[in-house]
Write a structure and sequence with these properties.
Radius of gyration of chain C: 19 Å
Oligomer: heterotrimer
Number of domains of chain A: 1
Structural class of chain C: mainly alpha
CATH architecture of chain A: Orthogonal Bundle
Radius of gyration of chain A: 21 Å
Largest sheet of chain C: 2 strands, antiparallel
Distance between the termini of chain A: 46 Å
Strand content of chain C: under 5%
Order of helices and strands of chain C: HHHHHHEEEHHHHEHHHH
Number of helices of chain C: 14
Chains: A mainly alpha (308), B alpha/beta (434), C mainly alpha (314)
Helix content of chain C: over 70%
Distance between the termini of chain C: 13 Å
Number of helices of chain A: 11
Chain lengths: 308, 434, 314
């Protein structure tokens, strides 16, 4: 394939990765920002979202769209409730101490993973996309005959992948409105800035924490429901999203939601675009190393304040 | 999900233990052996203990579940026919977590805690390679069902054998003539960027060149990858055949995206079924595979010319004509590999019988007995087909199947003979001391 | 002085118990304890950086792997004698720690966690990329004949146990000494209050770098020891999982205590080993225990001991 169309293809694919990543990372970012804890089980909430989507769609049957819509409503809600329960049962009792939270959430990770293995099984299971047309894409170039449009071999995307990008954007806007325009959003932001003062003003901080933890998990699950028609549900699928969203949150700057969005796009796209120039594994090595170097020279993250 | 992972494995472990305990008790009670021998009799009717290293958790869990089902069925058949040397066989199952470190620990458990006679079963190459040094040191015969080239390459030791399944080098070599003659000479290979993928790359490149073909591009995909489209533009336009061997849970994505990339005009596709073991070939997104070719270690779908042995084996392991569980048609088996467990256990049985195996002191006699084996005809012991075991390299060779996806089924198009897959010995383990 | 001698007695007592264990434990457990001691060396390495200096690394697997591959590749491709290979392994781990330290220590807190995590991920991919030499994920075997330590066979139960014991004892006692020295005390001062340590005129950056190098080298030593004693070198040990495990061991055993690493490794090993005998879903049990432990034993097992029974615990 020619360089131009190849780059365009890689960019489009990068955008899909970034779209999913932004939702998952946003979930972690909110939790991290408000509660200041590293939730190692975040990837497992993502996995649960995908697995529940499979259960819902295979239970309902019928046209894939019915199951998909049901999954997008049910899976994040259920995962959010599970996460809120975990917060009430465990994290609340360890006072959100950073070290203990790591051990506690590793424990939760084991429990969720093993339970899924026992109920869902070790296989990768696909979920049908509600719609999935292959769309060939044109390319424009100046040739001897002037400006020409042609259809390069292999340059295409699917309607569902475009939908994923659009859906992620919609969720982002809704989330932004929720955090800035609603009372609950205001309370969350107040708790994030200073939980003690918030408490003094009568904010039920414990409840807010549970909601935040549930919301974070629900966002991860939502990302997973969107991704599961592209990838498949598998009980070990949580590790990658955990690492990537963790990286995104820190690169973006702790507690900065715009930073998280920018970092997700940067990381999602760079992975795709660097792969145009190098052999795949080398591209991965370079991408990982470069992102790490961003942090080395800007430890507070892209949009973070200096005092972290 | 009526059948849970847990339910199944627990039944197999506990069931095997209880059942075997009961049958051992029954044998003692009915006096299978003359009663005058006292202690000696009690000792010799104790069960033969086979340690089964199972991928119950981790990335290999889908394989582990079916390796377990096959092992249980094979042991039941052996016990129903009177056990080994008149003794019942007991399987001790331990989870290796598909991890090389835990795998080695499990071997120690077999040798020193459970006092197993032999260890058996594991699939993933890194677990085999991580465990094999310990098998050698513990002097515990270790029968692997891994299809890796590690045994025949000479990397391991005299205590490690692979008598039940052909290795990857032989599989790959035997595919090249068919690919070159029927699909095309210009091949692009897409493989995971780790040892298993590199074996495919190296062995196939050499084999296809010998057939007058060439590999026009080698695309190594990082194993952590979950999306693939951006790598496909590197496939040269002149490609006539794409040879793919992706493994792991992202495989469906791989196939789906390959289909979306090519749209209606695709080159020929040849893949290793490893990619789609335990996956229904009719899953959503796999429509693209219609008309493409796969290597199969053993045909998943019952073929028109099915042998009686294959039929009996299929029934014994509880798999229907479509390669899925009899209890749940959505639960697809790892049919192209799991026969290795069945055949290996039968070889252990024959080896123990010809060595007159009595206990751990006879382990070296057992290995020598297996090393002495050579041709094994197709039979209920060897339902996959005839085998030729090479005692020097500890590796077996068998026929390989090439199937075409036709109307949602895998239909065998070509059977590569044992001779197609032979290569020069790279080691002679029989010269190593025990 | 009593404080000092009590701690000393405890350390020597533990070592004595490990020697006795060899003679009284059944064979399987002798093998298990050999492995536990090797992994405890790894945990000691992380404990110095995390427990004593307050720097949480999520990428220690790269140091473990540097030692393991330094050792394994030296033997495989240079046919180096074991001792030389071991020295090369330590040099490899130290050099990697130095480079990682110079870059990663520009950051602190969570950024340090992520930078080390990503460097480790890079190292893991490098191992795969050079599959021609490393055999990637599959790894390679070191033959028994290649694992003679000055003509001494380390592949017997006895040999393995006492080599593991010797290296563990050196690291364990050396570490216990180290944290009592002014250097160790300054590390603790940095952990407790970095600003204050800086105001007092300590070159905080230099101390952190030294701590990271020592920590990385000890971890590399564990990696080389694993390859020597168990004959296997593979990419699994460079994966993220092997960066998280030592953290879990240290937190369980008690971060910032001398005996924590050994306790943590032993506890986790036997938790999985014992529960897997009763059920196939032992991860479920392990998960529950971790949750309960963190709820009711906040500072790890040694932390509880220090709180309840042995306030003098170093």
């Amino acid at each position: 394939m020619d360089f131009g169309p190849h780059l365009m293809l890689a960019t489009l694919e990068g955008a899909v990765i970034a779209a999913i990543l932004v939702l998952t990372a946003m979930g972690l970012s909110i939790v991290f920002g408000v509660m200041r804890v590293v939730n190692v089980a975040h990837g497992e909430f993502y996995m649960l979202g995908a697995v529940l989507a499979w259960f819902v769609t295979s239970f309902l049957g019928g046209h894939p769209a019915i199951g998909f819509v049901a999954a997008i409503l049910i899976a994040p809600l259920l995962v959010g409730l599970i996460a809120a329960a975990a917060d009430q049962l465990v994290l609340k009792h360890i006072d959100y101490d950073p070290d203990r939270t790591i051990v506690g959430t590793i424990g939760i990770l084991f429990i969720i993973q093993q339970t899924t293995l026992m109920t869902f099984g070790p296989e990768a299971r696909p979920v049908a996309a509600p719609f999935n047309q292959r769309l060939a894409l044109p390319w424009f170039e100046f040739t001897d005959n002037g400006f020409e449009m042609f259809w390069p071999w292999g340059l295409s995307i699917t309607s569902y992948k475009l939908f994923v990008i659009a859906a992620a954007l919609t969720v982002l806007v809704a989330l932004w409105l929720f955090l800035t325009r609603t009372r609950i959003g205001l309370i969350m932001r107040a708790t994030q800035q200073d939980s003690e003062t918030a408490q003094a003003f009568g904010v039920p901080v414990g409840l807010v924490y549970s909601c935040v933890f549930g919301l974070g998990a629900a966002l991860a699950a939502l990302g997973a429901v969107l991704v599961v028609p592209i990838q498949q549900a598998h009980y070990l699928m949580g590790a990658d999203p955990l690492l990537l969203s963790f990286i995104v949150v820190i690169i973006g700057g702790l507690g900065s939601l715009p930073g998280t969005v920018i970092a997700a796009i940067l990381i999602g796209m760079s992975d795709g675009i660097i792969s145009v120039f190098f052999s795949p594994t080398l591209a991965k090595i370079i991408a990982t190393f470069l992102v790490a170097m961003v942090l080395v020279f800007r430890p507070q993250g892209l949009l973070g304040r200096t005092s972290t | 999900m009526p059948k849970t992972e847990n339910g199944k494995t627990q039944i197999s472990r506990r069931g095997a233990l209880l059942g075997l305990g009961a049958s051992a008790g029954a044998m003692a009670a009915t006096g299978v052996l003359p009663g005058s021998l006292g202690f000696a009799q009690a000792q010799s009717s104790a069960p033969i203990r086979i340690g089964f290293q199972k991928h119950a958790t981790g990335i290999g869990a889908a394989y582990g579940r079916w390796y377990d089902a096959t092992t249980t069925a094979a042991v039941k058949r052996i016990n129903d026919a009177g056990g080994i040397n008149g003794r019942p066989v007991e399987v001790i199952t331990e989870d290796d977590g598909t991890d090389p470190s835990r795998g080695a620990e499990v071997l120690e458990k077999f040798a020193n805690q459970h006092e197993c006679d032999v260890a058996f079963g594991t699939l993933f190459s890194h677990v085999v390679i991580g465990s094999a040094p310990r098998a050698g040191e513990l002097k515990l015969p270790y029968f692997v069902v891994s299809e890796g080239h590690h045994v025949a390459s000479g990397m391991l030791n005299r205590y490690t054998l692979q008598p039940g399944i052909t290795d990857v080098k032989s599989q790959v070599i035997s595919m090249a003539p068919f690919v070159a003659d029927n699909l095309g000479k210009k091949v692009t290979m897409i493989f995971p960027d780790f040892a298993f993928g590199h074996d495919h790359r190296d062995f196939f490149s050499e084999a296809i060149e010998a057939q007058g073909g060439e590999v026009v591009a080698k695309i190594a995909i990082p194993p952590t990858e979950t999306t693939f489209t951006r790598y496909f533009p590197s496939i040269p336009r002149e490609t006539e055949v794409i040879y793919h061997v992706m493994v792991g849970p992202a495989v469906l994505t791989f196939v789906k995206e390959l289909g979306e990339f090519f749209g209606p005009n695709r080159p020929e596709l040849f893949g290793f079924i490893d990619s789609l073991e335990a996956v229904d070939i009719n899953s959503t997104g796999l429509e693209f595979l219609d008309g493409t070719y796969f290597w199969e270690g053993m045909p998943r779908y019952a073929q028109a010319n099915q042998t009686d042995a294959e039929k009996a084996y299929r029934a014994a392991v509880g798999v229907d004509d479509n390669g899925a569980s009899l209890d749940d048609p959505a639960d697809v088996a790892t049919y192209a590999h799991m026969f290795g467990c069945w055949e290996t256990l039968n070889i252990i049985k024959r080896g123990m019988e010809s060595a007159d195996y009595q206990g751990p002191q006879d382990r070296t006699k057992l290995i020598e007995a297996v090393e002495a084996m050579s041709d094994m005809p197709e039979s209920e012991d060897h339902p996959q087909g005839a085998k030729r075991f090479n005692g020097k390299t500890h590796q077996t060779f068998g026929s390989q199947y090439i199937s075409k996806v036709t109307d949602g089924k895998l239909v065998v198009e070509h059977v590569a003979s044992i001779e197609d897959g032979l290569y020069e010995d790279e080691v002679d383990y029989t010269t190593q001391a025990f | 002085m009593t404080r000092f001698s009590k701690a000393d007695a405890l350390h020597l007592g533990i070592l004595a118990m490990l020697v006795i264990a060899f003679f009284v434990l059944p064979t399987y457990h002798v093998g298990a304890v050999s492995r536990i001691m090797v992994l405890a060396v790894y945990a000691i390495g992380l404990n110095l950086l995390f427990g004593y200096t307050g720097l949480l690394s999520l990428g220690h697997a790269m140091f473990f792997a540097a030692g393991m591959y330094g050792f394994g590749l030296a033997i495989k491709f240079m046919a180096a004698p074991v001792l030389l290979a071991f020295v090369l392994a330590l040099i490899a781990a130290a050099a990697l720690s130095l480079v990682v330290g110079l870059l990663a220590l520009r950051t602190a807190g969570v950024a340090f966690m992520i930078v080390t995590l990503m460097f480790a991920q890079t190292a893991y991919l490098v191992v795969l990329y050079f599959g021609e030499f490393t055999r990637g994920d599959e790894g390679f075997v070191l033959q028994q004949a290649e694992r003679l330590l000055l003509g001494f066979d380390v592949t017997s139960e006895t040999g393995r146990y006492f080599v593991a014991f010797s290296v563990f004892a050196i690291c364990f006692l050396g570490f216990a000494r180290l944290v009592q020295t002014p250097f160790g005390k300054r590390l603790i001062a940095i952990r407790e209050n970095e600003e204050r340590a800086r105001m007092l005129g300590y070159d905080v950056g230099r101390y952190k770098l030294l701590a990271l190098i020592v920590s990385g080298t000890i971890s590399g030593c564990a990696g080389a020891l694993y390859a020597l004693l168990f004959g296997y070198v593979g990419a699994t040990f460079a994966s993220v999982q092997y960066s998280i495990l030592p953290l879990l061991w240290v937190l369980l055993g008690g971060a910032g205590t001398t005996i924590g690493p050994l306790i943590g490794v032993m506890f986790m090993f036997y938790l999985i080993d014992a529960s897997s005998a009763y059920t196939n879903s032992y991860m479920l049990i392990a998960g529950l225990v971790l949750v309960l432990l963190t709820m009711f034993a906040p500072k790890g097992i040694a932390g509880i001991l220090r709180l309840r029974v042995m306030p003098w615990l170093p």
